[in-house]
Amino acid sequence: MAPQIAQRINDIGGSVFSRLAGRIAGLRHPVAPLHVGDTYLRPPAGCALHELDPEDGPPLNRYLAPQGAVELRAALAARAGAPSLPPIDPDRVVVTPGATGALSAIAAATLEPGDEVIVLAPYWPLIVGLIRAQGGRPVEVPVLGLEAALVERVAAAVGPRTVAIYLNSPNNPSGAILSAETLAGIAEVARRHGLWIWADEVYAELSYVGPPPRVAAAAPELTISVGSFSKAYGMAGHRCGWAVLPEAPGLRDALWKTSTHQSYGAPTAAQVAGLRALERGGAWLDAARIAYADAGRAAAVRLGVPSPAAGTFLFLDVGEALRPDLSEDDALHDFLVRCLDAGLLLAPGRSCGADYGRYVRLCFTSAPPAVVAAAVDRLAGLMGRG
Amino acid sequence: MAPQIAQRINDIGGSVFSRLAGRIAGLRHPVAPLHVGDTYLRPPAGCALHELDPEDGPPLNRYLAPQGAVELRAALAARAGAPSLPPIDPDRVVVTPGATGALSAIAAATLEPGDEVIVLAPYWPLIVGLIRAQGGRPVEVPVLGLEAALVERVAAAVGPRTVAIYLNSPNNPSGAILSAETLAGIAEVARRHGLWIWADEVYAELSYVGPPPRVAAAAPELTISVGSFSKAYGMAGHRCGWAVLPEAPGLRDALWKTSTHQSYGAPTAAQVAGLRALERGGAWLDAARIAYADAGRAAAVRLGVPSPAAGTFLFLDVGEALRPDLSEDDALHDFLVRCLDAGLLLAPGRSCGADYGRYVRLCFTSAPPAVVAAAVDRLAGLMGRG
């Protein structure tokens, strides 16, 4: 008799790159890593880990309180929702190991086994496995090109086990921003059915069309907003994010418990660096936003698609470049292999939603602009846009 | 209609310090923080985060693979179980945000809702909440002073829903080390019933009586061993630990999934610093072990209890110092308040097991030796050992 693996974990798909792994390992030429959401920039001056002063502030090797440093929570509370929403009580901020840690703690705190979460698609690739890992069931509602009737379709997806709606605006992978009207409609659905709103806002600081509307403005009592230093300040490897909670009885205590028991909180140095970034990183962020917008626009122009409104990705329909004699999955795999042979690694669209088997996701910030431009040029060739 | 909190999370106890929080906040004198497992030492030379070279090795602000850096996993595999066990394949190592992250990912990978885990007590305070957070049920089996009949009592605690045995040796809080015979007996129980063994070995490097026996030697096919840089190398705030897996079908994939979806892995800099500590930290560890042993011995002598065999804690029966006119919980609270007034913060014993309402836990490494010695002297007075 052998011990077992939990069924809900076996049901989660493995790495979307496993089918490419052998070929990646055998590559003999350099490959632009445009499959992952990362940055070629270093963090703002004075905010890199090697620049921290161990004599100024908490010892970097010691624990902080698992819910986060008092000063960091206060700083995040003061800017929560800015510029459109008022500051909040620091007790409503929980610091976590990245936005992933925040969303995992939120899922653990709010899902009973079998509960459903409506997930607007396309989505951040980890969210559906994250929900399943905590015993929940993701229910996908496609958005891409369908925002007009979105609220009605969200309402139609609510069932007796629905407990939350997950939305990621600005969006990974599409770069789209949901309108204030759409968010208000979704908030109304949530209010009618007593649902949490999990608002993944890790790209809020990387909008190229002005501050994005926030769903917390429409449903302050239901919205758990998630942010991160990873994207806004080039600190993905630091593992520091946060959740801003509504004033809901018991939710703060629940989040403190689930976050503490999953990871014992975010690293000390990441919190010190994050606080510095809030204090000193404004000019860096403004410059990064311009550089990222330029890189996104250049890639979009070369590929003949609209420039992204926000974020660090293009989500590309490559259907016309796929071999028609293969199944959609095999054809996309064949396309990704051709990309790899041409020196760029992309993510398959299905990792962002079941409906996106003809899509690929490209991160235009995970390598320097010249590297991205050269890779995009080769991709244009593969897409018949030479 | 308001959205809900998951019942299993509401069932987890809150912070054991919440009853003291008001008094702690109002203190006007310094308090020795002997309630938490931490260190007064800085990490080994060259291994502190501010000493890392951002031009040598992976960029500290970028992601690594969520299962951990290849070089670190190889180094951990080479020393897995040393000196008593052979090296293993690096694929059997998963790097996580601390041992907490490892155990949480293990619980998520192996527990179905309602499954039971036998937890040897006293225990690391987070383990029972960690099990509950993942839908499981902890079943406590007391060990303290009862090791002779332990194997029989573990066997008697196995029920139809039991899936794992958690043991923490060397022990937090008692400092005790389970014998090879006891571990072999527990391994036999696990084998008979098809149970995982979760071996929390974060104090393995801090034994003062020679290398501790490892349960993986007795049940290599069932044992998931958990380690950490936090205690051995003074890096608790870095958040980097690991799990060493048995060769069990599907377990590696499951751990990769649960760890990735809970936190997206350990911080990059913590992994770089940890690898350096493995390479260069030997002399530091030898010196720290001597310093910690001295601090533990001095505290034990002053308090009239046996010196700890390992770890960083004393677990003290303070029953004789408790007010007899109060309930056990109120009497212990009263004692902790008197400690606080005397300038030392301790953890209540019940956080380490239901049977330990007369106990307190004291960390003798979370402040410099002179601070600990002075605090222990005051504690001795409160315990009537002035």
Q: Which structural class do the helices and strands of chain A define?
A: alpha/beta
Query: So, CATH architecture of the largest domain in chain A?
Result: 3-Layer(aba) Sandwich
Poorly predicted runs of chain A: none
End-to-end Cα distance of chain A, whole Å, is: 59 Å
Count of beta strands of chain A: 12
* H-E string of chain A: HHEHEHEHEHEHEHEHEHHHEHEEEH
**Percent of residues in helices of chain A:** 25-40%
Instruction: Note the main sheet of chain A.
Output: 7 strands, mixed
Quaternary state of this entry equals homodimer
Q: What's the average pLDDT of chain A?
A: 96
Q: What amount of the residues of chain A lies in strands?
A: 5-15%
Output the number of helix runs of chain A: 14
Highest-level CATH class of the largest domain in chain A: Alpha Beta
The figure for the number of domains of chain A is 2
- Overall shape of chain A: it is globular
Q: Output the strand order for the largest sheet of chain A.
A: 2-8-7-6-5-3-4
Strand and helix layout:
The structure is a homodimer of 386-residue chains.
Chain A (H helix, E strand, L loop, with lengths): L6 H4 L10 H5 L6 E2 L36 H10 L13 E4 L1 H13 L5 E6 L5 H7 L3 E6 L7 H8 L4 E7 L11 H14 L2 E5 L14 H4 L4 E6 H4 L8 E4 L6 H13 L4 H13 L1 H22 L9 E5 L10 H14 L2 E2 L1 E2 L10 E5 L5 H14 L4
Parallel strand pairs in A: 1-10, 3-4, 3-5, 5-6, 6-7
Antiparallel strand pairs in A: 2-8, 7-8, 9-12, 11-12
